[in-house]
Amino acid sequence: MSAERKAPDAPGAPAAEQSPEDVTVRDAVSAPDAEGAPRRATRRFPLFTRDTARPEGGGRAAPGDAPAPARQWPILAVLLTVGLGLLLTALDVFRVGLLLIGAALVAGAVLRWTVPDVGMLAVRSRFTDIVTYGGLGLVIVLLALMMQPEPLLQFPWLQDMLHFTVDS
């Protein structure tokens, strides 16, 4: 037998010969593998995914002993407001329904910015979520305000631009 097999505490000893009781996990670099032996974690993506990372939105907006709807109140508030806006839009109150949908998305951006644990409202990074929710909400609100007939918001240059493109 080689010298490495006789002395399991040697620096070059195979990790499989150490018992799980002798393993000391100090940080993510020495995280144990399936057999319990410490292994060096790399920053490279594995060829085969064996586990998934916890998403950023996996945090709770309420304590863990609260029921599921209470833990996810930010996404439920946004979804219920969007649902009410869609209902109003279906009932022929277009402008109010679209304003409610846009306001719900802007409120989602504000919640994502101010509340540290927003649950499933967090989909991407905080910056990307804020820009996406806020941008889409603002565009929907502006389009609802410019909607015909009798628009509440008018841009004269927009009408000139439309006539320029249609007339040419």
From TrEMBL:
Against Pfam families, the record matches this protein to: DUF3017
Q: Which InterPro entries match?
A: DUF3017
Superkingdom of the organism of origin: Bacteria
Q: What organism is the protein native to?
A: Streptomyces tunisiensis
- Location of region: Disordered: 1-67
Does the record's keyword annotation contain Transmembrane?
Answer: yes
Kindly state which keywords UniProt assigns to this record, in alphabetical order: Membrane, Transmembrane, Transmembrane helix
The protein in question is named DUF3017 domain-containing protein
> Which residue ranges does UniProt annotate as crossing the membrane?
73-91, 97-115, 127-147
